[in-house]
Records
---
Amino acid sequence: MNNEKKQIKKTQRLNSLEKIITAARKIFVNSGFFGASMSQIAKEAKLNQALIYHYFSSKEELWKAVKKDALDKSFNTNIEYDIKTLELKDWLHIIIKNRFNFYKQNPDLRIIVTWEKIQAQKINLYGIDKNFDGIFTKDIKELQNRNIIEDRKSTRLNSSHTDISRMPSSA
């Protein structure tokens, strides 16, 4: 396969993924996880349901991909501050203010997280993906190293402690 055909195939794949994510986000916002079906998402995306399963092995995986996509596109992790000079109170103020602004700018994601909190008792919808290392992990480790916050039992913080989807929403 020549480079041009490879590029066309890559573009088609990205277009299909974008259609799937966009459709799934709309359906999940309107119906929640349990109210949404893969067939509804396929219909909304104007794609074959089998194609969705080609990219996502389950509805749970698609749910997490929708959240990750929204975060990747929207969340301002480039907040300007120097964690090495901040006290905990100041750092928390910056993070909370940023979170409120984030949900104000991304009401769809706030709705998805709310659905998640309501429905997650029946199935684990928390998290984004296995490789997601919480966006504040480095900051928290720095605060631990400076003994501003406790590093319990000398275990280092991992992403399960900083999963932002489990943080209280600003709803």
---
Amino acid sequence: MIDWTTLLLKIYRDTTIAIASAGFLPCIVYESHALCVLVWLNGMLYPFVVGCSRETEEVAHGFKTKKVANNVSIVRLGVILSKDDGILNKLVPLIKYGLGSSIGTGKQYIPWIHIEDLSNIFKFLLVNSELSGTYNAVSPEHTTNKMLINKIANQLNRKIILPNIPEVMLR
């Protein structure tokens, strides 16, 4: 069986070291389920997506310590909300046609950020390249799965009529 975390961490290390060694300094972006390294190369932005863990953050911060990069900015993200893509594109049709429901107890917290806010954070970090550190980029509101589903339903003038999806059905 393949240990994907170890494999992705190795790819992340090797790729980022190679990019930095070539003179291209990485800007690190951290999601709740993946780590995306954004690299500017010949005027184009190239993303490299790898698994995430505390170890990947330590490796990323090590690039500054080892003087491989001038700075490293890690942005921890939640679910990205956008009317054009992502989770909303999957949830809206389900809720619109009466098939929407919370998962499990519905009490699971869902950290989220709107795509425009995220875009502004990235722009800020790119413009202020002297900044270095780890930043949490999520809404200040504490939102549960049930709250999110109900907010979407309210925006669509719909009611959630189905019971919560049992956790056992999602395994």
---
Amino acid sequence: MANRWSPNRYQCSTDTELLVSILVRYPELATVCLDASTQTLRLSFLVAGELPAAKFRSLRRRVELSVRAYGQLRSVCPGVICVRQSSYDQLTVLHVVRDIQSLSQEEIGMLVALMREALGSQLTTDDHWVGDDMSGQEEVIDQMLEDIRSSRQQRRLTALRDDGRVLVFNH
């Protein structure tokens, strides 16, 4: 009976729970990728339509300045701040890559708010999650970020949304 179901067999690891919690808390995020080997987290936003080069440069600069200013307020020096875009016909994907060591849940919230303000209705949001009570998610995210910092796992995980569900892939 080695194939018998066991509740421990299906428990999620902290890194998987972190990605799911971030996507549940922030419906503006399309995907979240954790690369444990580089200790980075990539937050991806879907933007309807093309993003002009000047607007992207302005947004990238704003993100970089905001992350650095937020780091100064917390007395933390951000290690990795990378903002890039990928364009696909009438869709733009914005990627913000941050190092896990200096990242906090509050900063993720700030980045999401910044994107919402800068992109308005162009920013794609998953309607399945809007309106849910997310008050408890923030503390959970902060605790899991702390746990990941001390973890020795070397996995690369990507979480994405699919019709009201969150799927996590190990690659």
---
Amino acid sequence: MLHISHMLPQNPTSPQATPRLIVDAMLGRLAKWLRLAGYDTRYWRDGSDTDLIAAAQAEERLIITRDRQLAGRRGVRAVLVMAETLDEQIAEVRGQLSGNPQPFSRCPECNEPLESLSHSEARELVPPYVWHTQSEFHRCPGCGRVYWKGTHWPAVQARLETPTPLSPAAE
């Protein structure tokens, strides 16, 4: 079960706005998958809980954590993740978030929004076989990584389309 502590809407005039997230160090794999799902997700690797809270407040981000004490602090907007497996964590968190994020729109490594890359621009950036077999490419302006729908694509899509605890398909 997922617990929400002191959760307030991002923007009271827009209840369906997709929240910006900050995921603590205990949930690094989850941070990557939330980015793949389209959420603006900062990964907090180092620093104190006090610094994490300050960053979340300054950037208007919702904290995603497994730390009960952190999630239970007064004035902290946080989601306490109880699930153990990655698939359950993805479903738990996505089931609690509002908005309609665009999957595969953010770099899973550095969180920057991806930009379209033309087929001709991709030629020198990807292996020849990939260039010949793929037509759609995206590049991260932050880290320079190039993405395309490779053989792993169906598995990634399936993981992100798993019904969430609050969706009708999960009942």
